[in-house]
Design brief:
By secondary structure, the protein is of the alpha+beta class. It folds into three domains: 86 residues, Rossmann fold (3-Layer(aba) Sandwich), CATH 3.40.50.20; 65 residues, Dna Ligase, domain 1; 111 residues, ATP-grasp fold, B domain (D-amino Acid Aminotransferase, Chain A, domain 1), CATH 3.30.470.20. Helix content is 30%, strand content 25%. The chain contains nine helices and 13 strands. Strand 12 and strand 13 form a beta hairpin. Helix 1 packs across helix 9. The radius of gyration is 19 Å and the shape is globular.
Length: 288
Amino acid sequence: MQVAFVTYHKFPDLYEDDKLLQQYLTQKSIEVIPVSWDDASVNWKQFDVIVLRSMWNYFEQPVEFDQWLDKLKLLGCKVLNPLSVVKWNQNKNYFDDFSKNGVLLPSYVICSQKNNITLKSILQENNWNKAVVKPTISGGAYNTWIANIDTVDIDENRFAELLKNGDVIVQIFVEEIITKGELSLILFNKKFSHAICKRVKQGDFRVQVQFGGTVEPIEPNELILTQATNLLNSIPETLLYARVDGVITNDGNFLLMELELIEPVLFVSTNNKACENFYNALIAISCI
């Protein structure tokens, strides 16, 4: 069986974490072939399953990425996670769906493209001293920064430029990201596999490894596991993988920061059962 692991030009041979999955699946007689999503020469129909992994430039080319998704649908390819899920999850507007259903999220405002609203007015109207600003189609802290009410005027031009290119989300800054770190719960086929805590480098607010962030394995409590599982069970489609990112606030609530269903790092290197859990989910869903 041939399975495509979709990547992009900076990781043509896969990201290190995905190489561990590739090695494990190879031992199970599943051939994993790295392919770049934006390589026009790829014959996508040759693969039994297409698994989306490290396409970490898709948010820089959203139109082309959507066209590629449409192509896979037209070809009738089996894609995991499903194309409908990817289309929904790539835009932070999905926050609205969860908010309506009572999922706890940090307070946020989504600003429509070419809206004349100012960043200062958003902070003032919501009584926020600090907020995170980023495009609604984003990843890896791309075009993301912290706005402070005392210095917001210097960010207005940057904010206006973002709005020219697409919708923007402004979200209250959650201080516990700095003090407690961000939890990532990884689930395969909607079943919990493992979890890590991501911590920022001193003086930064971004938890990603490329910005100096660190990770460590953790065991989340039952309440958080239940919240994460219920969150995924509210999605009708089958999910090969999901990463539920959140933070525990000082009052004990678990706030959803991101639901990563497209190209999250799965941190399989942090857990000795992770590759097996991924394999079992792939077999169960794909019937290969």
